[in-house]
Write a structure and sequence with these properties.
Layout (H helix, E strand, L loop, with lengths): L3 E16 L3 H10 L2 E16 L3 E5 L6 H9 L6 E6 L8 H6 L1 E5 L11 H11 L4 H15 L14 H12 L6 E5 L7 H18 L2 E5 L3 H7 L2 E6 L2 E6 L1 H8 L2 E8 L11 E7 L2 E7 L5 H9 L4 E7 L3 H10 L1
Parallel strand pairs: 3-7, 3-8, 5-6, 6-7
Antiparallel strand pairs: 1-2, 1-4, 8-9, 10-12, 10-13, 11-12
């Protein structure tokens, strides 16, 4: 039976912002009479997340992602609606909720700048009241996954960006949280460190059934890690499904690129159309649900000598960008 870790119902967050009038006259009027308007950052969203899910929570800048996460962490209070995290309200029972949460923000570190990395871990151990044996066991696991002992005695200020991110990830797991919020965890990292961060996410999810909410603009993180994606735009949820299901919905076609030994044959196949024909190259577009790729390849290769072929999937970035704009 699935255990619900996050339950969000009809959540709204609005702000009152001052409307500035143009020009010097507008500035003078604003000194004495301020005109305010309501800005809706999160607009009646609802979703649930079960234990062990890795959910990509994505959208363009200003879509409401960070606002939602801050409400789920108890930092902000909703205007209306309700949130439950691990069975508690983040606003009313924040201390209980924090015991179940780990949070990593790519641009802001929870490590103490002037302390050694190990001393930062010791400080967090005391804050979360972690037993000595559990602390040592967790550090051993984090070292196995992230290799942190190689730089655990260095001051945080001397760590590279990649080392600091690994330290932040380890710090977030010291109290063995059920739920981990990761906000842009791979931003600015090189390829090797990105790979290490992704391996960390996969491993803690598999080993501890840690539920992970990932916000990122790196779609490689989404495609490699997330079983489900929630897409926001202007404070509303516009998609909530697996990446594959969203691709099928938005772009149901695939392409077959074929290089023939001679002039390509004329083809008239159900569910298949010729997209381009240039020299010995033929590009076919076909409906992924109506035409199995294996059958299409078999049909085409039986009609002419093929030197090379490849099936081209829709570009994920183009699909997500199109969803944002729709």
């Amino acid at each position: 039976m699935n255990q619900t870790v996050i339950s969000v119902s009809d959540l709204v967050k609005t702000y009152q912002v001052t409307k500035k009038r143009p020009g010097l006259r507008g500035s003078l009027v604003g000194l004495f009479r301020r005109e305010r308007e309501t800005f809706t950052a999160v607009d009646h969203i609802s979703f649930q997340v079960s234990r062990g899910e890795i959910v990509g929570y994505i959208g363009p800048n200003g879509a409401g992602k960070s606002t939602t996460i801050k409400m789920m962490c108890g930092i902000l209070t909703p205007t209306s609606g309700s949130i439950e995290v691990c069975g508690h309200s983040p606003q009313q029972d924040r201390k209980q909720v924090v015991q179940h949460l780990g949070v990593v923000f790519g641009q802001r570190s929870q490590l103490q700048w002037d302390l050694r990395l190990g001393e930062s871990f010791e400080l967090l151990k005391r804050i979360y009241c972690v037993e000595d044996s559990a602390f040592r066991a967790t550090l051993d696991r984090m070292d196995r996954i992230l290799g942190i002992r190689a730089f655990i005695d260095q001051p945080v200020r001397q760590l590279s960006l990649g080392q600091r991110m690994r330290g932040d990830l380890a710090a977030a797991m010291l109290h063995s949280p059920q739920l981990l919020f990761l906000d842009e965890p791979t931003i600015g990292l090189d390829v090797e460190v990105k790979h290490a961060v992704r391996d960390f996410i996969k491993e803690i999810n598999a080993e501890f059934e840690t539920t992970i909410i990932l916000t990122t603009h790196d779609l490689a993180d989404i495609s490699e890690l997330c079983s489900r994606i929630i897409i926001l735009s202007e404070g509303k949820i516009i998609e909530d499904d697996s990446l594959d299901a969203i691709i099928r919905k938005v772009s149901p076609y695939r392409r077959l690129v074929l290089d023939f030994a001679s002039t390509p044959p004329e083809l008239h196949l159900d569910g298949v159309e010729t997209e381009s024909r240039e020299g010995n190259r033929l590009i076919l577009r076909f409906d992924r649900d109506r035409v199995p790729a294996a059958k299409l390849i078999s049909d085409v290769t039986s009609r002419g000598a093929v030197r090379d072929l490849r099936v081209v999937e829709p570009d994920i970035e183009d699909i997500i960008r199109g969803i944002y704009r729709s």
